[in-house]
Every structure is written in C-alpha cells, then in structure tokens.
Amino acid sequence: MKRPLQGRDTTRARFIMACRTADYPPRPILVLSEAFGACRCVDSAPLSRAEAAALAGGAGVAGEALAGTV
Known about the structure:
Number of helices: 4
Largest sheet: none
Oligomer: single chain
Shape: globular
C-alpha cells in the first residue's frame, strides 16, 4: 500500500477501512498516517444500522447510502 501512495496528492482523499480482527496490525496505521497525515483507529462494533449511519454522517459521509452497501 505504501508504494502506490508515494508522491500522490492525498489532500482530498478519504479512506475508510474496516477490519474484524481483534488484533489489528499497527503497520497499516503507520502507512496511512504517513500518506494522509492522520489515521484514526476506532472500535465501532457493535452498532445498529441507525448508529452506523449517524456515525458516518458525522464524518461527512452519506450515512444511509453507506449503511445500504454493507
């Protein structure tokens, strides 16, 4: 993931990644922080559909549309 992001303009990019593993490896967080300037690792489970939509909406993402894709 690091190589394709090198030298790219990521100022307007948003990247949302979900992982079900309890032991999330730290390397992706470091790579994404370096590429995007910030990376948040949050525990979002378990959420209802309404809670997931509200959470996404608070981040500026179309919450209902996102919830409908999962």
